[in-house]
Structures are given as structure tokens and as C-alpha cells.
DNA sequence: CATATGTCCTGAGAGC
DNA sequence: TGCTCTCAGGACATAT
């Protein structure tokens, strides 16, 4: 589930390692199927141990440690991955560990389902991997004009299109429903039928919702998986308007109930009265 | 190129 | 109570 706000919260949670030197990197033994860590641990150790972290960054839904030579160690949490500086929710799902020079700093990668990945890229590999061809502009940077350029000719349903990371980076299933509800756009509306003023509204709403979600440290759903770097839950789930609220009264019209439909094999939540196909 | 679909994986919760 | 089954949705390989 980690989307842009959750991953940005992870990034902020490990900012303290900026300037610290990595003293150890360890793939933690785990009875479950091991996650993908690339390249191998011996190469990772050779390139990281004794090196200083220049910056902690985020690209889309990935968080990374950037070294002084611009090697980047990326954590890609996918569904259930967490980057932690505190004790993990469970020991059995700890997959990877980094130790740092000063203080008692330690960073853990924890992942219950193990769909996440960790990989080390040199600067050129990073630039290629995340060129605009492969990953769209960050969702916090969008404008109506940009969205219209990116999506304006597409016939896809807007909700499905917003999830395409090649187009815009950072929006996932949860925030897509929330954004379109607030912008009052029907999730099945085709992109090429959305007006310029509606794109402006979607852009504004996207930034507003994602920023507010970051301020609240992301959304911890009922399964409780997502935690910040200190292993505390987020708070934005209390501000959800439609996500996972099928059958509940719409908070805007107070009349219709929230509907659930499936688009591209994923749940979409919306209000039939507030979000017209028009 | 654009878009659709199946797959990876675990554990919570539903249903019997 | 304990078993089986479904489902959650990140990114990507493959197909159309």
C-alpha cells in the first residue's frame, strides 16, 4: 500500500542518517522466501561499507540513500515494505539491516509479504531507470496543464490512468479514489473527455491531498501494516472520505452511499451523486 | 507506441 | 474450534 505520502514519511523518518557512514550491511536470515536484493550482498557491502550517505531521497514510491559518488541504495516497499529506525512490528519479517557510524543508528527493511525489493544503482543506472520515459513527473509537482498534456488524448478511465507510474509518479489505489472524490470527477470518465478546468482541479486536489496525507504521516489501514520509521501508525486514515467505505453515507451530499467498483482488478470507491460521468 | 492481464507473496478475515 | 478460500494492490513481464 505505501504510496507517495507513506514513502515520503519513510524518507523523513530516516533523514538522520544523512552524513553518517555505513559500517555494515546485512541480509537478515528469514524463514520465508527471500526478497530480491540486487546486486549480491558482497557487491553491496563493497560499495557501501565505509561510505558516507550524502542524501536521503524519494523517487515516486521508492526511498533511497544517495552516497557521495551518487550510488543509490533504493528501497521499493511495494505492498507491505517498511523502512524503520525503531524496533520492527515483528522480528520474523525483517529482511535487511544497515548499521551506521555515529550514534546507535540502524536502518531496517521490514516486509511482511516480501514483494518489495532493495537494489543498488550507480548514477547512470539510476538516471536510465527513472528517466521520464520510465517514470512520470512526481505527483506533488503536477499542474492542470501538465496533466492535460500527459493524459488528454487517452481513452482510459481517469482512475486507472492516474495509477500509471510511467505517466505520474506516486499516486496509488487509495489516493486515486480520494483525489477523484474531492475533485468530483467520476472514476470511469475517459481522460479525453475531461476539461481543462477539471484537469486544473485534479492537479490542485492531488497536491492538497498528498501534502495533507504527508502531514499526517500517511494512512495505516485496518490491517495495521503501514508504520512510520518509528513504528507508529499514520493518521490520514481518519481523514479518508471514500476509500474502503462502501455503503457508508457520502460525507459531502449526506444522501447517497459510497459505491465500490472494480477497475483494472482494483477497487475504486466513489459517490454516484457527487461524481457524475457528465 | 498504448493498453490489458497475470503473477509474485503473506496473513487477515469470511464462511462453513 | 479449525479448516479452506478469497482478497488486499505495489511493479513488471508478457500479450495484444
What's the short story on this structure?
With 278 residues, the protein is of the alpha+beta class.
Question: What would the keywords be for this entry?
Answer:
alpha+beta, Helicase, Ruva Protein, domain 3, 2 domains, 7 helices, globular, DNA-binding
Could you explain how this protein is built, in words?
The protein is of the alpha+beta class. The protein contains 7 helices and 11 strands. The strands form 3 sheets. It has a 5-stranded mixed sheet. The protein has a 4-stranded antiparallel sheet with strand order 1-7-8-6. A hairpin with a 2-residue loop joins strand 10 (258-263) and strand 11 (266-271). Helix 6 packs across helix 7. It binds a DNA duplex (16 and 16 nucleotides) through residues 1-3, 32-33, 35, 61, 76-81, 93, 111-117, 154-156, 160, 163-165, 172-174, 221-223, 264-267.
Strand order in space, largest sheet = 2-9-5-4-3
Structural class comes to alpha+beta
Total helical segments: 7
Determine and state the CATH class of the largest domain.
Mainly Alpha
Rg, alpha carbons: 20 Å
Low-confidence stretches: none
Instruction: Based on Cα principal axes, name the global outline.
Output: globular
Report the sheet with the most strands, covering strand number, pairing sense and barrel closure: 5 strands, mixed
SSE succession: HEEHEEEEEEEHHHHHEE
CATH architecture assignment name of the largest domain: Orthogonal Bundle
Strand content: 15-25%
**Count of folded domains:** 2
Mean pLDDT across all residues, rounded? Answer: 95
Let me know the number of strands.
11
CATH third-level topology of the largest domain: Helicase, Ruva Protein, domain 3
End-to-end gap? 31 Å
Amino acid at each position: 500500500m505505501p504510496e507517495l505520502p507513506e514513502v515520503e514519511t519513510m524518507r523523513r523518518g530516516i533523514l538522520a542518517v544523512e552524513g553518517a557512514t555505513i559500517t555494515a550491511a546485512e541480509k537478515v536470515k528469514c524463514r520465508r522466501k527471500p526478497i530480491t536484493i540486487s546486486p549480491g550482498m558482497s557487491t553491496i557491502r563493497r560499495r557501501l561499507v565505509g561510505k558516507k550517505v550524502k542524501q536521503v531521497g524519494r523517487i515516486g514510491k521508492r526511498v533511497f540513500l544517495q552516497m557521495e559518488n551518487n550510488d543509490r541504495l533504493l528501497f521499493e516497499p511495494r505492498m507491505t515494505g517498511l523502512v524503520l529506525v525503531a524496533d520492527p512490528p515483528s522480528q520474523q519479517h525483517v529482511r535487511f539491516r544497515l548499521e551506521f557510524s555515529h550514534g546507535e543508528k540502524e536502518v531496517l527493511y521490514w516486509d511482511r509479504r516480501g514483494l518489495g525489493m532493495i537494489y543498488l544503482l550507480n548514477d547512470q543506472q539510476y538516471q536510465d531507470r527513472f528517466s521520464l520515459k520510465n517514470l512520470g513527473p512526481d505527483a506533488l509537482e503536477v499542474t492542470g496543464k501538465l496533466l492535460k498534456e500527459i493524459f488528454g488524448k487517452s481513452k482510459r478511465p481517469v482512475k486507472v490512468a492516474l495509477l500509471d507510474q510511467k505517466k505520474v509518479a506516486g499516486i496509488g489505489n487509495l489516493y486515486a479514489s480520494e483525489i477523484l472524490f474531492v475533485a468530483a470527477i467520476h472514476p470511469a470518465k475517459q481522460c479525453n473527455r475531461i476539461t481543462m478546468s477539471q484537469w486544473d482541479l485534479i492537479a490542485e486536489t492531488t497536491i492538497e491531498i498528498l501534502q495533507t496525507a504527508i502531514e499526517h504521516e500517511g494512512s495505516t489501514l485496518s490491517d495495521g501494516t503501514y508504520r512510520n520509521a518509528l513504528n507508529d501508525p499514520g493518521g490520514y486514515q481518519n481523514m479518508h472520505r471514500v476509500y474502503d467505505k462502501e455503503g457508508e453515507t457520502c460525507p459531502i451530499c449526506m444522501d447517497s452511499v459510497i459505491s465500490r467498483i472494480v477497475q483494472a482488478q482494483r477497487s475504486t470507491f466513489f459517490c454516484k451523486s457527487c461524481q457524475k460521468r457528465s
